[in-house]
C-alpha cells in the first residue's frame, strides 16, 4: 500500500445511487486471487458497449477523468456482497477516494483495509461536489494547462486533518477511525501494523512462555 496523506484532484462524477459491488466489479472477475487486470473490469457493464467497445458517455472513459483520483458517487455506494475485488478494481484504475452521502459498511471496511478512502458527507456538500465535478467535465476542452483546472475545479482531501477543501476555501470534515487513519498515513495494512510491533509481540510471547 502507498502512504496516503493528501489528495489534490478534480472529481469524477458517478451520478448513480445504490451502486452495488457487482456493478463495481462483475462476479466473473472474482476468480482471480490477485489484483492484476481488475481495473479493466471496473464498472464493466457501464464502461463498455455490448460489442465490448468503450462507452464514450461513461464518465471514466471521458477525457476529464484522466489523472483524477477522487470519485463522487450517488447515495448508498458499495452495497451488495462483500468482495475485496471492488476496492482493488477502483485502486487499480487510479481511484484513491470515494465520496458519497452513504457508503455500505462492508465496502467501507474492505476499502480501508486496502488503502481506499471512503468519505461520507452531508447532502448539501455532496451536491456542491457534484456541481463542481459537472462543471469540470463540461469545461475540459477549455483548458490546456494541466495545473489551472485544479485551481478552479480541484478539491484537497487531507487525511491528517480529516477535511475536504473546495476551491473557494470552504471545508467539510469527515469521520475516520484512528486505526484506519494510521494505516492510511503510513501505507500499511493490518498485518503491516502488527509487524511494526513485532518486538513487543515477541517480548510478550517470551514472558508468557517463561511464566
What does this structure look like?
This protein has 211 residues and is an alpha/beta fold. The chain has a single domain, classed as Aconitase, domain 4. It contains 10 helices and 8 strands. Strand 4, helix 5 and strand 5 (117-120) form a beta-alpha-beta unit. The termini are far apart. The mean pLDDT is 89.
> What's the CATH architecture?
Alpha-Beta Barrel
Biggest sheet descriptor? 4 strands, antiparallel
Helix segment count? 10
Strand order of the largest sheet: 1-6-7-8
Mean pLDDT: 89
Radius of gyration: 19 Å
Under CATH, the topology is which?
A: Aconitase, domain 4
Distance between the termini: 38 Å
Element order, helices and strands? Answer: EEHHHEHEHEHHEEEHHH
Number of domains: 1
CATH superfamily: Aconitase, domain 4
* Number of distinct beta strands: 8
* Helix-and-strand structural type: alpha/beta
- Low-confidence residue ranges: none
Shape: globular
Helicity level, as a percent range? 25-40%
Would you state the CATH class? Alpha Beta
